[in-house]
């Protein structure tokens, strides 16, 4: 064995020991709270990827789409036939168009009822609260209500929260937080959102 091969082997052994220690230390099993936030692209995509992952094992999944419910969404089209998936969408579409605080609040509260029901159902393995961060920001939903519902959920249930500017309290209570960083985005170069890629 050359010097270089020996060095590589030693480094790999060290790495393996480190990973083994970490695997041994991770001895808890329970549902997770994940937050996908930040200004870069990929938050909702990652949420639907995880939905697909859970459905792949036959788990029940609930997706609640705040704000962008009326927008097209390829994953929803593809997965809708799966009897284990329930999707609830906010009725009014997005607020920059409707700009009616009262009806937006009512629509938000209505779809939140579905979220609350899913968060209380031990048969549901994963709940996605897509773009809910904006509901909290606009004051259509109250952080205490959301925090309580997430905290009281069944222990085996996981929850994914997506959206920019996630509330500090959600970040604090989360198990996994990923911030998508905007390095560049095609839209800034004048390229339109692309079907099957962006939605
Ligand atoms: P995606 O749904 O593609 O995973 P996202 O959930 O991270 O994106 P949102 O803020 O929900 O991001 O925006 C959704 C739409 O806006 C998508 O069409 C996405 O491609 C686009 N988008 C996301 N990030 C940016 C950005 N930094 N600049 C411009 N457009 C963006
Ligand atoms: Mg999104």
Quick rundown:
With 199 residues, the protein is α/β, with parallel strands linked by helices. It contains eight helices and six strands; from the N terminus they run H-E-H-E-H-E-H-H-E-H-H-E-H-E. The longest helix has 23 residues, at 3-25.
CATH homologous superfamily classification: P-loop containing nucleotide triphosphate hydrolases
Structural class by sheet pairing and helices:
alpha/beta
**CATH topology tier name:** Rossmann fold
Mean pLDDT across every amino acid position: 93
Give the % helix.
40-55%
Strand content: 15-25%
Low-confidence stretches: none
The first-level CATH class is given as Alpha Beta
Pathway: Cofactor biosynthesis; adenosylcobalamin biosynthesis; adenosylcobalamin from cob(II)yrinate a,c-diamide: step 2/7
Organism: Salinicola endophyticus
Keywords: ATP-binding, Cobalamin biosynthesis, Cytoplasm, Nucleotide-binding, Porphyrin biosynthesis, Transferase
Family: Belongs to the Cob(I)alamin adenosyltransferase family.
Please give a structural write-up:
This protein has a six-stranded parallel beta sheet, sandwiched between helices. The mean pLDDT is about 95. It has a single domain, classed as Rossmann fold. The protein is globular. It has eight helices and six strands; from the N terminus they run αβαβαβααβααβαβ. The structure holds adenosine-5'-triphosphate and magnesium ion. Adenosine-5'-triphosphate binds next to helix 2.
